[in-house]
Automatic annotation (TrEMBL):
Residues 1-19 form the signal peptide. This is Uncharacterized protein. Residues 72-98 have a biased composition (Polar residues). Residues 41-98 are annotated as: Disordered. Keywords: Signal.
Length: 98
């Protein structure tokens, strides 16, 4: 229960510029590692968030989300990799017009 509360607290923490990383290991040896990084420049922001879940037997799955914002557009790319190495990618582009 304590580990779940720690994960919830980290998820609720405000997003700060710069890299952050956390690893949580379960009683059975499984672990979850999450990292996020945000860079900002004049008129744009890039945010990368990735996570890898490794089971007790060594199998793993991962997910990476890249969000790029510039001007009036935001593009999000999500890539997931399954335990057998299969990869699936989704993209979304949002443009705001007045």
């Amino acid at each position: 229960m304590r580990k779940i509360m720690m994960i919830l607290a980290l998820c609720a923490a405000p997003s700060l510029a710069g890299a952050q990383s956390v690893t949580v290991t379960g009683e059975n040896g499984a672990s979850y590692q999450s990292t996020r990084d945000c860079t900002r420049a004049a008129g744009s922001a890039n945010r990368t968030k990735s996570g890898t879940l490794t089971g007790a037997a060594g199998e793993s799955v991962s997910r990476e989300k890249l969000r790029v914002r510039a001007g009036n557009t935001a593009q999000t790319t999500v890539t997931g990799t399954g335990p057998n190495g299969e990869t699936k990618t989704r993209q979304r582009l949002i443009t705001v017009t007045n």
